[in-house]
């Protein structure tokens, strides 16, 4: 199961109007737990996840992958989009395999009944690998210690663990180091002969993938190819080599090998924003309902510290979403929302639970209960996650993975049809 800070999920039409009868009869319930679509009022903070956009993005990636197969990376709860529904949508649209960071993430997919290959690649060497081996989670190996632990667990449960070797080629994070490589290959061949493991893949990760012409990419590719040769000489012939993340999949077809490993592009965000959208469609719309509309007189301050003072009489809207839900406080006064058919500036400090936007003196016809979009598809003036990334001096990966707290996920579209 996802971690305790995960957003809750529900499948319902995003535009469901609040049911007025509910408030009178419903017992007290935590606001972040939506019991069922029929008893739910539209969420105050909501991440609408468009599974048809996932399918579209997988098709784009498959086109770029050519003969290589696509491993859809759904780590970190599918970049906070919901691992199981995104995984199912990606597989239905043509992804062949799934990639995650941790054993728990791999087990969550297997326990949900997903039968496609799932590779998990970031572990401590003292982890308990037995449940993952039994459940059929494939394991990335990054050192002789990791290999020994997996072999030990495989012997204990009496099964063959399917493994992929993560090779250090220049990122200098996770991966078998050059110094340990020769000994590692000896151990690996021995373990495979013993049938404790089956070596299915060899992979590596790029340091400069978002700079398609960077010379380090070629260095890494050369080291990777050499390591594959070493493995071959040790009698190991894995069926799949892979090193391309989203950026490399879309910009360096020479790095396809047998499989590509895109993550962010599945979620419709360009891995190289300055090169355009690659026709990807953003999957997440982060939005909220207007809790309150009120007048603020000229000279009055809004929110903590009164960092914004009304320059004239105006009307503001209160949105019940704050930094605990994924709107960084550093965005105070530096973001717009889409509301009442136009962009409205966020004013004053972002607080834990709420933000305020200025509607102007006439209020723009906005009413309590209307929907405001923090970021979404970026079309016709709707803000895009990349805008937040630029304002915050970060990348959109961090923007979408920060959506949390009381935000409720609503899935639309997908392989099972409209929800
Ligand atoms: C996260 C990750 C990916 C996906 O990267 P994107 O830039 O999101 O496409 C691929 N491979 C590994 C090893 C990763 O950790």
From TrEMBL:
Binding site for substrate: 173, 352
A single GO BP: D-alanine biosynthetic process
Sites of N6-(pyridoxal phosphate)lysine modification: 75
Catalytic residues (UniProt): 75 (proton acceptor), 304 (proton acceptor)
SUPFAM superfamilies in the cross-refs: Alanine racemase C-terminal domain-like, PLP-binding barrel
Residue spans of biased composition, Polar residues class: 1-13
Keyword Transcription regulation carried by entry: no
EC number assigned by the record: 5.1.1.1
A GO CC term assigned to this protein in UniProt: cytosol
UniProt biased composition (Low complexity): 21-37
Region (Disordered): 1-37
Recorded catalytic activity of this chain's protein: L-alanine = D-alanine
Any one GO MF annotation of this record: pyridoxal phosphate binding
Alanine racemase C-terminal domain mapped to chain residues: 283-412
Name of the protein this chain belongs to: Alanine racemase
